From TrEMBL:
Record-stated family: Belongs to the protein kinase superfamily. CAMK Ser/Thr protein kinase family. SNF1 subfamily.
Keywords: ATP-binding, Kinase, Manganese, Nucleotide-binding, Serine/threonine-protein kinase, Transferase
Name used for this protein in its record: non-specific serine/threonine protein kinase
Species, as recorded: Eucalyptus grandis
Lineage, broadest ranks: Eukaryota, Viridiplantae, Streptophyta, Embryophyta, Tracheophyta
Documented EC number(s): 2.7.11.1
Amino acid sequence: MNAFEMITLSQGLNLSSLFDRQQDFIKRQTRFVSRKSAKVIISSIEAVAGSMGLKVHTRNFKTRLEGLSANKAGQFAAVIEVYEVAPSLFLVDVRKAAGDTLDYHKFYRSFCKKLEHIIWKPTESNAKHGLLRTKSCDS
């Protein structure tokens, strides 16, 4: 993750709309934060993806999930990367790699519901200060 990507985590400093004209449309990228270790995050992702009938390919801290789209009309793939942004604070970046965007967002909501035990929900005071504002699983 580079400095520009880190800056985009704060809504007030997010300049990506200057460079990405398609940002007005549905986002292809989603993120959540966890306080669990990277190994716990990866193993939880693998277990949930397996229970959803997806093929899982993990290498280092990057995981690719593959399977059929929800309407069974085509292939679906997502790439998940885990970044340590501070000691005991991890950013999990989930991106659509193939398939329909609406199917991807349905997948993401369902995926997050099954990963609630590892997703960190910031306290009210952190949210007021603008810390870690990302597209959450609730959005």
